[in-house]
Amino acid sequence: MKKINFIGRYAAFFLIVTFFSGIVTSCTEKDSDIVKPKTITDVILQNSEFSTLREIILANDLSDALRTENLTLFAPNDAAFKNSNITSAKINSMTKDSARAFVFKHIIGQNQTYETLKTQKYSTLVKGDSIIITNRTTDPTTLILNGLANVITKNVNADNGTIQVINKPLVVVK
């Protein structure tokens, strides 16, 4: 009888240790299980509405520039580019500095929601350039950017800022 009792204690101890080690190892988070936040770059690269802007960003090595903190991107969607007769090929045929300036003229270095934007000048990422925001005279709740564009989709949130989708590019391209 003593031999069976001795084996039973070891078996019970083994089961308890196995049970607790199973609990401990199953509760650890793996990096692959964690949902990573999307930056402005990630949103642009994954959203089919921004295929023209995506091509411009990728061709001009701007992915990292849009991963910095506290940005507001006024992003023209594909329809905005099409209605303005601007293609990614036209932008990418510019010098690299001009193409980068085209994108940077759509970005302010502050995270602004639509509700916090005021009628004023906001400096863009291009030194000496700004976006002028005014109200539409017929509808004071509608904001006009540089006298050209309206925000058509408000407050697309990203981990490092906000995207305001606009109906026209803020830069005239010839």
Automatic annotation (TrEMBL):
Example of a GO cellular component annotation carried by this entry: extracellular space
Pfam assignment, any one: Fasciclin
Domain FAS1 positions: 37-170
InterPro entries assigned: Adhesion/Biosynth-related, FAS1_dom_sf, FAS1_domain
Recorded superkingdom: Bacteria
Protein name: Fasciclin domain-containing protein
UniProt source species: Dyadobacter frigoris
